[in-house]
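Exercise 7.
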Amino acid sequence: VSFDNRGTPAPKGRAWRKVVYRQIGVLASIEQAAAAKVVQSWPNVDPARIAVWGWSGGGSMTLNLMFRYPEIYRVGMSVAPVTDQHFYDTIYQERYMGLPQDNEEDYRRGSPITYVAGLKGKLLLVHGSGDDNVHYKGSEVLINAMIAGNKQFTMMEYPNRRHDISQGENTTRHLYELLTRYLEENLPAGPVSH
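Solution. The predicted structure, written as tokens, is:
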């Protein structure tokens, strides 16, 4: 199941920018978790077997959901995430968040790393060490925070791969087989338990 926050069509436009201003990482997390709670109530859904995955901004969302809503999400797979908004492209961040020195609290509130203590489920973190968009440093900082908080997780680094993690022979296939295997091992198919 996939949810479009606020149902906004592309191109997003001025109204969307005004709604999300200073709310990147916060507003969408609230909306995604609310949608997942609705899905949990469906008769053919096992509420104890909800997973989430995403790449780039979706990877950040995965972390925010796993850390902020551990009662909903049991498994998460985060690929090339922005873990701390201070580390991302200033053209994007400052357009939607303002300047960090003027808006430090919202940068903190929107960054997944702020909520590491909430992790309870199974988490796979994937990043290319040569990522030239969402720099690998963010994952290193997150890894250190999870280690300091004694949070268990699984990590896969793809050496020298960029943000699309496609460089090198067999890389794309390897990545998608990794994601599939992680989900099958940590949230295997089965009957609804309620």
